[in-house]
Amino acid sequence: MLTLTENAQTIITGIVDGAQAPQTGGLRIAQDAEGAGLNVTVAELPEADDQVVESAGAKVFLDPSAVVALDDKVLDASATPDGRVDFAIGQQG
């Protein structure tokens, strides 16, 4: 199962709060239409077939394709002073 670093937890919580999503909201990661990459959006609720990863209050909703792609990964994040967020995916362990 995908795990989140402390930085990712903080940044995801900030993104979701900044989008004024409800308490049920989170960051949704889904395979793009071409199947070549992943899209990240803020969602008010997970989709019916999403897996929910929650860590220290940060919620990530993974569509079934993202679950497979990120099963043994760690999600990290960093933010620049101008507000840009970069996500990085690493191998667990």
UniProtKB/TrEMBL annotation:
Q: Which InterPro entries match?
A: HesB-like_dom_sf
What domain of life is recorded for the organism? Answer: Bacteria
Record protein name field: Fe-S cluster assembly iron-binding protein IscA
What is the native source organism of this protein? Agrococcus jenensis
